Amino acid sequence: MTKPIVNKILTGKVKRMGSPDAEDRMDRPWESGIFKNVADGKRWVGPEGFTDDEVADKKSHGGPEKALFAYPSKHYAYWREDQQIEDMGTGAFGENLAMAHVDESTVCIGDRYRFGDSIIQVSQPRRPCWKPARRFRVMDLALRIQNSGRTGWYYRVLQEGYAKAGMEMELMERPYPEWTIAACNEVMYVKKRDLQLAEQLASCELLAPNWKRTLNKRLQGKQSSDEKRVYGPNKTET
User: Fold this and answer.
1) For 209-231, how does the pLDDT look when each residue is reduced to its tens digit (9 = 90+)?
2) pLDDT at 237
3) Predicted pLDDT at 220
4) Cα(55)–Cα(96) distance, rounded to whole angstroms?
5) pLDDT tens-place string over residues 64-99
6) Residues near 33 by Cβ (< 8 Å), separated by ≥ 6?
7) How many domains does the chain have?
8) What is the mean pLDDT of residues 132-148?
9) CB 209 within 8 A of CB 216
10) CB of 120 closer than 8 Å to CB of 96
11) What residue spans of 116-165 are helical by DSSP H?
12) Sequence-separated (6 or more) residues with CB below 8 Å from residue 178
């Protein structure tokens, strides 16, 4: 089996953009850590990711369960074709780890990897928000990402340490081979009425708590809207 490789490490500070007087909602003030730059050399992987990386919305991004956002670089060929946007390439969606030889069909919840001196574990798929849409001025981009299954995923950090780009990741443990990122996305977005599957995924011990909460609400008959997450302030409220 070909081992996953981290082609690039990307980090960035929060940027503030937009004008309060703008008529177009896409041009109004917003802030985000989505704009990442390639980070050379060894980087310290701490409990909330790389020490020189920032997130703007700490309620929705970052934290121990979303310490590192990984995205397969090969997906960008699809997005450039789909959106006809030439500069949609590595780092466009704000990932920290640009991945090769791996994707949503080959990564599972709870996968534990050695990455340099650190040990990291897959915690959840990424649920895309409105900020990539704002960056590329494509209103429904979050929905397109979600529906395509090309979402990427997050790692939590089990052991801190140094790591650098170009390193292979060594799979140490795979406790839930049935719960690939692709399978999780299908339960969350496609098979919404299959409560048995929702219950099975919610009982996965190593799934991030926020995913468990969403699934448990579904089991209680409470369906929450994705409107705020996928459109945010980009869309006029109705």
Assistant:
1) 999 999 999 999 987 788 889 99
2) 58
3) 94
4) 11
5) 999 999 999 999 999 999 999 998 999 999 999 999
6) 12, 13, 14, 15, 53, 54, 55, 56, 61, 94
7) 1
8) 96
9) no
10) no
11) 131-136, 141-148
12) 108
Residue 8: phi, psi to the nearest 5?
Answer: -145, 145
First CA to last CA distance, the chain: 50
Closest CA to 30 of 13, 11, 16: 16
The tens digit of pLDDT for each residue in 28-53 reads 999 999 999 999 999 999 999 999 99
Tell me which residue range forms the domain holding 192: 5-234
- Do the Cβ atoms of 32 and 61 come closer than 8 Å? no
Q: Identify the CATH number of the domain in which residue 173 sits.
A: 2.40.33.20
Closest CA to 109 of 176, 169, 47: 176
* Share of residues in the chain with pLDDT > 70 (%): 99
135, 144, 170 from 58: Cα distances, Å: 19, 24, 30
